[in-house]
Amino acid sequence: MSIPPREAAVECRVRALAGIGLRAAHEQVMLDTRPTIGWLEVHSENYFGTGGRPQNQLQRIAEHYPISLHGIGLGLGNSQPPERAHLRALRQLRDLIHPVRISEHLCWNGHAGRYVPDLLPLPHTAATIAHVSAHIDRVQQYLGQAILIENVSSYVTWADAQMPEWEFLLEVANQSGCGILLDVNNVYVNACNHGFEPMEYLRHIPTYLIGEIHLAGHARREIDGQTLLIDTHDRPVAEDVWALYDALIRRTGPIPTLIERDSQLPPLPELLAEAERAAESMSAGGTIAS
After folding, report:
1. Which residue, of 40, 73, 185, 226, has the fewest CB within 10 Å?
2. Where is coiled-coil annotated (predicted)?
C-alpha cells in the first residue's frame, strides 16, 4: 500500500488500553457480566463463514467492546501468495465486526498445499524480506488498510541468516508499509533460546511502528541438558517478561497491550487482573510517544 510505515502503525493504534484474548469459554460470561476491559482480541479464523453461533456471539460482544482480529493461518511467508478464499473470509469478517486492528504472524505454515498447525520462523535474509513484503502488500491491497505483523517464537535458527531478528522484522515493516505487533514474551523466549539481549531487540524497534503489544506465558523444558523456553500461552506472564514490558513502556509510552492465554484458561477475573497490571504499567509509563 501507499501508507507510510509511521501512519500505518498510528492508524492501527487507537486508544492505548489493556485487553485480553477472547476465547469461547469466556464469551457468555463476557455477555452476562460485561466486565470493564479496554478491548478484546479474537483469532480471525474461528469466526470465518456466515452466520452460526460463534459469529453471532462475536457480533453481540462487538456491540460492547472494541475487537481486534488476530490471524493465525494466512501464512505470509509461504511460497505461494495468501489464498484468495482466506482473504475473502477475512474481509467479510472485517466488514461485519469493524475491528480496531487486524494482525497476522510473520511466519510460514505450509508449502505446496500441505499445512502444519504451527507458526514457523522465516530465514532472516534480504530475499525473504522482499518475498514476505510482497505478500503483505497483497493482503493490504485486498483489505484496503494496513495490518500489523507479529514476531514469532523460535527454537532453531537458519544457517543462512544475514541479520538479527529485529532487523528482519523492521525491514519487513518498512518495505511493506505495515505496522508491528510486538510480542514481548516471544522476544524474551527467543533471547533465551538463541543467546541475545532482549532489551537490544526492543531498543531497535521504533515506537511509531508498534501498533499493539502481546504478553503471554511460557514454559521451561530441559532437552539434552539444555534449557529451552517454549511459548505455551498456558500460564500467567512471567516476571522477567513483565520487567521487559515495563522497560519498553517507559520508552514508548502507552501502547494497546493484550494478555494472551490459549489453554489452561483461568477464571475470567484472573485474566482481567493481568490486564489491569498492564494498564497500571501504561499509566506509570507516561504519555503516548509519537
Report:
1. 226
2. none
Delineate the domains of the chain, giving CATH numbers in brackets.
Answer: 5-285 (3.20.20.150)
Q: Which residue has the cell 538463541?
A: 194
pTM of the model: 0.92
Helix (H, G, I), strand (E, B) or coil at 239: helix
Rounded distance between C-alpha atoms, residue 64 and residue 35, angstroms: 10
CB contact at 8 A, 235 and 217: yes
Which cell goes with 9?
A: 502503525
HSE, side-chain direction, 13 A CA sphere, residue 20: 26
pLDDT of residue 145 exceeding 60, the answer is yes
Residue 276 has φ and ψ, to the nearest 5°, of -65, -35
Q: Which three cell numbers stand for residue 132?
A: 514476505
Torsions phi, psi of 124, nearest 5? Answer: -85, 80
Rounded Cα–Cα distance for residues 269 and 229 (Å): 27
Measured CA to CA, the distance from residue 184 to residue 182 in angstroms comes to 6
Longest dimension (CA), the chain: 52
Report in angstroms the alpha-carbon separations of 15 from 161, 200, 229, 285, 287.
37, 27, 32, 15, 12
| Residue that has been written with the C-alpha cell 515506537 in this structure | 207
Report the C-alpha gap between 170 and 86 in whole angstroms: 26
The model's confidence at residue 112, banded by pLDDT at 50, 70 and 90, is: low
Confidence of residue 110 (pLDDT cuts 50, 70, 90): confident
- How many other CB atoms sit within 10 Å of the CB of residue 1? 17
